[in-house]
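REQUEST ID: PR-0412
SUBMITTED BY: lab tech R.K.
PRIORITY: routine
TASK: structure prediction, single protein chain
INPUT:
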Amino acid sequence: MSYRAAPRRSVVANAIYGLLNPIPFGFFVAALIFDIVYARSGEILWMKAAAWLIVIGLVFAIIPRLVNLVQVWITSRRSALSGDRLDFWLNLLAIIVATINAFVHSRDAYAVIPAGVWLSVATVLLLAIGHIVMAVQQSAPGNLIHE
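STATUS: complete
OUTPUT:
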């Protein structure tokens, strides 16, 4: 039985991932807040703003997911930790839910409510769980891989 440290990943890829990965979460949280405000007030501005935030969040979610796809499933698939894979799947599922949410937000007025709010909640929860999984994995003592 031997232990070795987790393999190092590309510094450039880690920098791009670290820079762009939190951005979609912020946009999706803002969209959730705007959806709740729209559900309470009925002002169409909030729904339109939420729709734009969801689309911008989806655009910013593409690059970190591609970097994560390469790091977890292609270059280091044998040494990727289960938390990395779970985070990838949670983020991918969140992107799918957010895409459906973007289509829901393309409807008129109150046709967005309540589906838009629930889809926004699901997107934010999936991303939050993914961030928690990664935080727990990174705080593990030594972050060693057992062979």
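NOTES: The chain has one domain: 10-138.
REVIEWED BY: pending
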